[in-house]
Amino acid sequence: MQKLTSITQFEELKAAFMANKSWDAQYRLIIQLGKVLAPFPEQMKLASNQVRGCESTAWLICTENNGLYTFTMESEARIVRGLMQIVAIIFNNKSAQEIALIDCDELFAELGLLNHLSPSRSNGLFSIINTIKGVNSID
Description:
two-stranded antiparallel sheet, globular
């Protein structure tokens, strides 16, 4: 199996999901992905960085460098951390225009992800995505 820290592209992520066909295996994969989520600075766990609409407490910071965006995220829930790592793989190092064109419904369908998440977990996931897309709508 590919080292999870080396997964940086959606196609690599998709291959990891395909290699773990059962939902139990995919769930474990998501939890493992959460363990490689980039560290989040404790001093940035502020209300202004909280993601609204997540059942679990979640934070997100957007950084722009030369027109490309990077998202640093954190949650106290292991599954949410894993979902955040998936979101980071999809959105990090993209321009605002690229981010605006990303169809997460299609990407998550390719992973088979939404079939297994509870409605509240799906809502939280899309709250993170909407926050990311909202950050970039000002460009």
